[in-house]
Amino acid sequence: MSGRYQVELRIGKQEDGLWRVEVPDFHGVWVDAPTLNQALAEIQEVIAMAVDDYSEQGWELPSSVAILEAEPTRAVLPVIAAEHPFERVAPRGTGRKHSA
């Protein structure tokens, strides 16, 4: 087994402003976090723990969790630009900075 998995996620923003990321077919596998970046990082650890638990119990993985036999070829990922503030530096010689 490769130890790598392809997992279907459900991502949404809740009324309280937190991002929720969950694995639809994995009962109880979800995280809430203030940023999407943090939620996506945390869900990976929760999924790893759930996969380990399923393996230890001898249970079959849910259909939305598949063993990844080869490198992934495609992913769809939402990017929330406001959660990644950065400062754009003007080309040399202009002396100006731009914030995004």
Give a summary of the structure in a few sentences.
This protein is an alpha+beta fold and 100 residues long.
Relevant terms:
100 residues; alpha+beta; Double Stranded RNA Binding Domain; two-stranded antiparallel sheet; 7 strands; 22% helix
Helix and strand layout, with pairings?
Blueprint: E1 5-7, E2 10-13, E3 19-22, E4 30-33, H1 36-57, E5 65-67, E6 87-89, E7 97-99
Antiparallel strand pairs: 1-5, 2-3, 3-4, 6-7
Give a verbal description of the structure.
There is one protein chain. Helices cover 22% and strands 24% of the residues. It has 100 residues and is α+β, with helices and mostly antiparallel strands. It has one domain: 2-Layer Sandwich (Double Stranded RNA Binding Domain), CATH 3.30.160.250. A three-stranded antiparallel sheet has the order 2-3-4, covered by helices on one side. The longest helix has 22 residues.
Task: State the separation between the terminal residues, measured CA to CA.
Answer: 43 Å
Whole-number total of structural domains: 1
- Average pLDDT confidence is 85
What's the count of strands?
Answer: 7
Radius of gyration: 18 Å
